[in-house]
Amino acid sequence: MTITTTRTDDLLALRQSEIPRGISLAHPIVAARAEGVKLWDVEGREYHDWVGGIGVLNVGHNHPAVVAAVHAQLTNFSHTCFQVTAYEPYLRLAQRLNARFPAPGKAKTLFLSTGAEATENAIKIARAFTNRPAVISFTHSFHGRTLMGMTLTGKKAYYAQNFGPFAPDVYHAPFPYEYRGTTVQAALEGLRELFRTTVDASRVAAIILEPVLGEGGFLPAPVEFLKALRQICDEHGIVFIADEIQSGVGRTGDFWAIEASGVQPDLLTFAKSIGGGLPISGVTGRADIMDAPLTGGLGGTYAGNPLACAAGLAVLDLFEDGTLLEHARHVGTRLHDAFTALQGDIGAVGDVRGQGPMIALEFVKDRVSREPDPDLATRVVEEARTRGLLLLKAGMYANVIRVLVPLTVTDDELSEGLEKFTGAVRAAAGG
After folding, report:
1. Same CATH topology for 7-63+323-429 and 77-319?
2. Which residues form a coiled coil (predicted)?
């Protein structure tokens, strides 16, 4: 008997043979091309991509403006290293991001290559400014896969494994999770208890927080909580870092998620969608804090690569007149309405939450116990894929489906995607 293998089979076999098992694969497909919200695999199958490279493609796959900007820069040069010779795209992108920093006064920007690098450098800068060692992060958080990133991450089982020992002087406080019983008041009391019992506030250089948890399940930090943290940081001379790596660049309907609260950070980390698909990250913050490290203390060989900076400028152009943010809020409203309708019909949809189009569903075995149902979430992902929709799970219990649909999605494309999504949930839940 002749056994026929597809190109996908061959390539996935090559992946298993040549790539370490530690790199996960959410979907057993191999991409061939993509445009906007659509992705096609090597067999020619079409998918609506609601993952977006894990929040990298807020302006969609291969946006023509981004492609044109990168091509134009490539005809000039692709790399010099900014520490060797400066170049205008880096300078102009920094200038424009400084103008967007959500706090008054002079801001400065440092570019890097990955979100984890941005996290690492924000901590370095805060320590240099305060001359203090300790850092506080939160439960359910994710801040990267480097040593400091893993240490800061408040979701240990999946990411930390046996990779320790980890960075010293990093502590975790509770993140508010009302659906699972952690109120704002309880979270703040947990932070105060940490100050009383484990690390004195006078030793803390920085508090780092995602305004909307990413890997942690798209939990928005309540405004009351953010305001209290800002007050605590002011009281104790602590640098407040907003990690906007997944929540930024329009994902929530504001350019930065924290803008909706009116709370002003001291430093802000970004990555993912700022490059429109190219690797770039950075830290923007108060100039006096950003200038704390001495010459030579910051940088990186590929940090702020010219091609990625050119892409970043094109991405900012797309947000310039506000229409894309307005459309993002419209997308968020449609998603929220569709998901709350599902929640009304299907008891396994325990919670619908998010900020703007950064929205998620949490699946439970029943609404009384609220016991997480990660198996159902997995079935939803698999059922959606058969219908031509790519989804991704999240959350401490892997029972959350998060939506990262490109903000450039048209109404017709969104309707088609929602039909696939709701059909997948109903089929997987048996409802």
Report:
1. no
2. none
- How does DSSP classify residue 274? G
pLDDT in tens, 188-225: 999 999 999 999 999 999 999 999 999 999 999 999 99
In the chain, domain spans: 7-63+323-429, 77-319
Kindly calculate the radius of gyration of the chain based on its CA atoms and give it in whole angstroms.
22
| Arithmetic mean of pLDDT over the chain | 97
Tokens of 348: 């396994």
**Residues in a beta bridge with 194:** none
* Domain range 77-319, its CATH number among 3.40.640.10, 3.20.20.370, 3.40.50.150, 3.40.50.2300: 3.40.640.10
Kind plus residue range of the DSSP H or E element containing 107: strand 107-112
Please report the sign of the dihedral spanned by the C-alpha atoms of residue 26, residue 30, residue 33, residue 38. Answer: negative
CATH code that applies to domain 7-63+323-429: 3.90.1150.10
Whole-number Å distance between alpha carbons of 408 and 331: 9
Tokens standing for 159? 């990411």
